[in-house]
Amino acid sequence: MSERAITAPPPVSRRLAATDPATVVSTLEEFERWWAERHRAGRFEVDRIPLTELDSWHFDPATGNLGHESGRFFTVEGLQVRFGGVVERSQPVIHQPEIGVLGILVKEIDGVPHALMQAKMEPGNVNVLQLSPTVQATRSNYTQVHRGAQTRYLEYFTGLARGEVLVDVLQSEQGAWFWHKRNRNLVVKVDGEVPAAPDFRWLPLPLVHRLLRIDNLVNMDARTVLACLPPAGAGDAAGGARHATADILSWFTEAKTRCDWHARLIPLADVGGRTVAGGEVVDDERRRFRIIGARVTAGNREVSRWTQPLLEPRGQGLAVFVTKLIGGVRHLLVQARPEIGLLDLVELGPTVQLSPGEDVSGIEDPLIREVARGKLGRTRFSAVLSEEGGRFFHALTRYRVVEVDEDFVTEPSRDYCWVAGWQLTELLRHGHYVNIEARSLLACLRSLPS
Amino acid sequence: MSERAITAPPPVSRRLAATDPATVVSTLEEFERWWAERHRAGRFEVDRIPLTELDSWHFDPATGNLGHESGRFFTVEGLQVRFGGVVERSQPVIHQPEIGVLGILVKEIDGVPHALMQAKMEPGNVNVLQLSPTVQATRSNYTQVHRGAQTRYLEYFTGLARGEVLVDVLQSEQGAWFWHKRNRNLVVKVDGEVPAAPDFRWLPLPLVHRLLRIDNLVNMDARTVLACLPPAGAGDAAGGARHATADILSWFTEAKTRCDWHARLIPLADVGGRTVAGGEVVDDERRRFRIIGARVTAGNREVSRWTQPLLEPRGQGLAVFVTKLIGGVRHLLVQARPEIGLLDLVELGPTVQLSPGEDVSGIEDPLIREVARGKLGRTRFSAVLSEEGGRFFHALTRYRVVEVDEDFVTEPSRDYCWVAGWQLTELLRHGHYVNIEARSLLACLRSLPS
């Protein structure tokens, strides 16, 4: 599973007139050279500072909410959960009502689909640089609220002459930390020459998939877009599913109806058990995520210096997809999972999904608990990948795909359902179905030989 | 368009052993007899009372929100809209986080699909009784928070042995008046004997569709469920659409991204320009909807006497679908329309949608304005139908379907798109796409000869 264990894809003779060869990275070795060069070229410093020292960010005296003086970007507010009408708990949450653009440009070079990927710095990344989509921009970014440089390549995703749209869908992000956050996931296919800036390279799609196996390399934004792109020949693969799609939709509707939670925003000042201490928003027991301040100095971002809040989890998350072949068709055991920050509360998550701090022992089903502990099934994929480094500080999740035999338990409870891979791909045409952790794992599945 | 103008469907020889003939209503004449009898049998009084005299409903001293002491049912709260981060306006809104069940049982009798419909009283109905789904129950109803009688036929929709599920999807309701309201729309097909209580009758589906042409007869809850049921032979009709479904989804995503509104709940006390006067929540100019109190006495509801708030609009709404054949395929001109109370803000609405109090002159496009004024196109359908009588008092909308020639304007602006009828039927398998007014009109379209 280490970086060195990856077999480099066979070099291809690519040199189409329409693509500058210097902007194509075809092998793992070429990628590593470019990546090292990007590390040398970047200048990026992140310093922790007290929230009270952020520029232009203030705690509202009435609500205690932390926000930017422009009213843009995002705020840190409170979130209250009621169960059956009764208040159950509250926590801070990141509220970013804007819809951003996550877009990947693709192009055939010598018959192989290539993606224009970006070496992008984010303040919360453990390793500074991660491989990111062609465009990854909040609305505040791309409408230039902070008066920075224009977002490169944005015109391919928002203009009318943007090429063939392969993916265009709003998808949710972390329901444990975000309030109703969605981004527009786009894949656009182009034909003509697209000049690649130094931070950008055309990578064969199979190479991008292989890079997913390297810890903390392909960022969350790239993973969600990659998951939404139907694999080649996806149309032919339909059939042989354990449950008809109509039955899956009905099961999912039932799960949503069953969920008697209700979440709402409240003033951050009203969240119980949290205080602003040492310039951070922390919980009294020091066990949950905190909100910290950061000062960022960067050489190749839209603006070169800024401060912002970040959410810092304590510990590492875990997300596991249990998979098996049923009658030769790849199936995944999905879970209908309420998350307090999701717009529609319930989406389909992986078989196991534990937030940092949650323990495996909390999993009800004994077989799934054993899978989560790594004691059952064959691990087909395992890597630690980062969550969005623009909002989260060092937020890491262990992603695993575990294969089980066909005689493995059917549905362990009414919250679980075996769904064919192609059915999930179909559902990804629409929002509100597959959560970000499941989408990350679906992207990772593409790195498997099959 | 009047009740008398309807041609009765030909009587069919039905008398299947599995269905008690006395519970089947096959012709308009039979329907009228049953309906008159139901009017005689019901006892139903609605009195306006000041909100302060409601039993178990109180204004919260801190927020001014109006709620039930159980924490269940619904609340009347404030809603604030921000545009690009700046507060634009606020209004009261009905907040009902629970998901209710709207379910219609269907059954083949002598080869004709029949629906088990209910003569149901709702306090806000102009005419007391309307034709309603088999089950129309809030979660508080069917979990018996108010300790009333059990909801009839609920077991066919929530149990495991519920028959063949033809429709099962969460759909939104009025985005102008509700906050994030959704209900579960269900159609379940049964085979065996289902005894029909006096308020229930089996009606041939074509008869139900014809009854839609009668003012204020088929209620909103029935209309949304009927719209979600694919017409017979729907699968064969696919093809010949002006735009590929992928392109429609991309256009729709673009419209959502463009919408820079953000809505949030605020305390009712913080809504500007509204006061509690004369026991009602009214706006200072007396031009917008108000919240009134009602005391209800009923003979055939789960409980026989209760009080509740209702939203009373001033004036009548208008919803018009412009339709034409494109290459022989029925298309509808839909509008991507933000509504402040919708969970996902933007859904597909009819070509024209005006809330009570909004004027036709506000419609930007001159051709669509002419259609709205009734000066362009051929009216294929026109009836005044009621919105949900359990929450709204005398809320009426004029629903029209207007046919235009194939050379009628293409898309008048980027907010409009011609979508084939079968494409809308496909989208109705999912929530968050087609709004309640458009769904009402889609049900009405079923009443047309084609």
Distance between the termini of chain A: 16 Å
Q: Based on CA inertia axes, which overall geometry of chain A fits? A: globular
Averaged pLDDT of chain A, please? 90
Tell me how many strands of chain A there are.
25
Number of helices of chain A: 9
Largest interface: A-B, 35 and 35 residues
Q: How much helicity do the residues of chain A have?
A: 10-25%
Counting helices, strands and paired strands, the structural category of chain A is alpha+beta
Oligomeric state of this protein: homodimer
Rg for CA atoms of chain A: 22 Å
CATH names the topology of one domain in chain A as Nucleoside Triphosphate Pyrophosphohydrolase
> What characterizes the major β-sheet of chain A?
7 strands, mixed
Write out the CATH superfamily name of one domain in chain A: EvaA sugar 2,3-dehydratase subunit
CATH top level assignment of one domain in chain A: Alpha Beta
Low-confidence parts of chain A lasting 5 or more residues at pLDDT below 50? 1-17
Strand fraction of chain A: 35-45%
CATH architecture of one domain in chain A: Alpha-Beta Complex
